[in-house]
């Protein structure tokens, strides 16, 4: 790479662009390409088809190989034969942890990490960047150890709370990116803070709509509230359903759409039936990401709510992209004082309530349901917050700046 030339970047994911679960990475990958990076996306465990049109556009920049495919195993074996000392050093680093389960998971990706080393060397990569601090980061670290190509990682939430050799990875990486300040605090609490000069907070970003939001008045008679969240305990759906029951008792009319799937569906559906809310709450299942954004553009959604909770042991939200996307479309949001959420909606950019407090949640919902002017005010404040701090053009420019510094430092040392 020249001083101002494009960075040849290997971008390690869990499965993106194949299969669901990492849709929020598509926006960042596309923006890296738009800003001039040469990108090779390497999913650790590609599964299923391309999950949306944006992901389909990234297929040509992706290298799809299953974790233990013949090509991966053959390449790993060749790497072992040609570089036995390096392979032994890598194996020793994976053995440094005390957890047998962590070692087993890392050993399972060792062949693909050695395969990735050959890919990075043959593709002449300048840098390897991994999302998540678990086995995707293990792959990137192995490739770096075997080739000398610098690497870095982005940490999100669960991968910090339940670390996998995280202190070692943060020590050896060129830099560690957190997507929230609360994530950095968690890392300190679990003893994986890393060298301060190697740490940075760079948010995940979202694309701002190309046009101003439609001027449609919304659903004035029966406002639509959307909860775009999988049905997992950390999302706190039960408290939102209780809040809807409180609104029914208060004769406040609105409808709740829950978009997501998960193992709590049966229990939550029974709660809705028990509270007599079947005419007010609809479970939509898995809704394509493009459809949700279409609803926002068409102003079919009046309020977005995410009633997240803190499960203890550092298990809580990071900064939810689901909230950012709604805010970018001037949709007012309601969420809780957990994890990194205050970094996003604090100071009036959204309505924030204590977690596990259905009464407070009902109060916040009622205030927005009955007052379209307040919805507009908070929606505009939310969009301004996203524009200033969470627009993908800004966040990717920060990330590229860190990548360039890491590549230049490596060139100077080399």
Notes on the protein architecture:
The chain has 414 residues and is α/β, with parallel strands linked by helices. It has two domains: 8-205 and 392-413, Glycogen Phosphorylase B (Rossmann fold, 3-Layer(aba) Sandwich); 224-390, 3-Layer(aba) Sandwich (Rossmann fold). The chain has 17 helices and twelve strands. The strands form two sheets. A six-stranded parallel sheet has the order 2-1-3-4-5-6, sandwiched between helices. A six-stranded parallel sheet has the order 9-8-7-10-11-12, sandwiched between helices. Helix 6 links the parallel strand 3 (127-131) and strand 4 (151-155). Helix 3 packs across helix 5 (100-123) and helix 5 crosses helix 6. It is elongated. The protein starts with 7 loop residues before the first strand and ends with a helix. The model has no long low-confidence stretch (mean pLDDT 92).
Superfamily at the CATH H level of the largest domain? Glycogen Phosphorylase B
Could you tell me the mean pLDDT?
A: 92
Structural class: alpha/beta
What portion of residues is helical? 40-55%
Strand count, sense and barrel status of the largest sheet are: 6 strands, parallel
Approximately what portion of the residues adopt beta-strand conformation? Answer: 5-15%
Helix count, per DSSP? 17
User: Class of the largest domain, according to the CATH hierarchy?
Assistant: Alpha Beta
The radius of gyration is: 23 Å
Task: Jot down its keywords.
about 425 residues; six-stranded parallel sheet; alpha/beta; Rossmann fold; elongated
Q: What's the topology here?
A:
Layout: E1 8-13, H1 23-34, E2 38-43, H2 53-56, H3 70-82, H4 84-94, H5 100-123, E3 127-131, H6 135-147, E4 151-155, H7 158-161, H8 166-172, E5 175-178, H9 181-189, E6 199-201, E7 224-228, H10 237-249, E8 255-259, H11 265-274, E9 281-285, H12 289-297, E10 303-306, H13 321-328, E11 333-336, H14 341-345, E12 351-353, H15 358-369, H16 372-390, H17 392-413
Parallel strand pairs: 1-2, 1-3, 3-4, 4-5, 5-6, 7-8, 7-10, 8-9, 10-11, 11-12
Helix pairs in contact: 1-17, 3-4, 3-5, 4-6, 5-6, 10-15, 13-16
């Amino acid at each position: 790479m020249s001083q101002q030339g494009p960075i040849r970047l290997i971008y390690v994911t869990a499965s993106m662009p194949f299969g669901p679960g990492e849709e929020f990475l598509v926006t960042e990958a596309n923006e890296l390409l738009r800003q001039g990076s040469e990108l090779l996306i390497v999913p650790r465990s590609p599964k299923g088809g391309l999950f949306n049109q944006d992901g389909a556009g990234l297929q040509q920049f992706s290298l799809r190989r299953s974790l233990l495919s013949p090509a991966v195993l053959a390449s790993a074996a060749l790497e072992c034969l040609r570089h036995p000392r390096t392979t032994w050093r890598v194996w020793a680093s994976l053995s440094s942890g005390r957890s047998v389960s962590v070692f087993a998971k890392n050993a399972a990706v060792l062949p693909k990490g050695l395969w990735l080393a050959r890919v990075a060397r043959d593709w002449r990569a300048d840098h390897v960047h991994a999302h998540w601090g678990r086995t995707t980061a293990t792959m990137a670290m192995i490739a770096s150890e075997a080739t000398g190509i610098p690497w870095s990682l982005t940490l999100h939430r669960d991968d910090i709370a339940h670390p996998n050799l995280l202190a070692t990875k943060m020590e050896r990486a060129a830099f560690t990116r957190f997507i929230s300040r609360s994530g950095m605090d968690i890392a300190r609490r679990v003893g994986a803070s890393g060298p301060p000069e190697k740490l940075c907070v760079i948010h995940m970003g979202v694309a701002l709509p190309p046009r101003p939001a439609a001027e449609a008045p919304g659903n004035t008679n029966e406002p639509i509230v959307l909860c775009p969240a999988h049905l997992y305990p950390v999302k706190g759906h039960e408290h939102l359903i209780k809040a809807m029951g409180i609104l029914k008792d208060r004769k406040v009319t609105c409808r709740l759409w829950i978009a997501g799937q998960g193992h709590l569906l049966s229990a939550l559906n029974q709660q809705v039936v028990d509270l007599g809310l079947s005419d007010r709450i609809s479970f939509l299942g898995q809704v394509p990401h493009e459809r949700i954004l279409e609803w926002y553009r068409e102003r079919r959604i009046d309020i977005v709510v995410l009633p997240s909770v803190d499960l203890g042991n550092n298990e809580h939200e990071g900064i939810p992209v689901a909230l950012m996307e709604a805010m970018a479309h001037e949709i007012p949001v309601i969420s809780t004082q957990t994890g990194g959420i205050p970094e996003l909606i604090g100071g009036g950019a959204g309505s924030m309530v204590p977690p596990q407090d259905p009464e407070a949640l009902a109060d916040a919902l009622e205030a927005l349901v009955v007052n379209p002017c307040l919805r507009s005010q908070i929606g505009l404040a939310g969009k301004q917050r996203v524009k200033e701090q969470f627009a993908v053009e800004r966040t990717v420019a920060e990330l590229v700046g860190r990548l360039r510094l890491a590549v230049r430092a490596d060139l100077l040392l080399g």
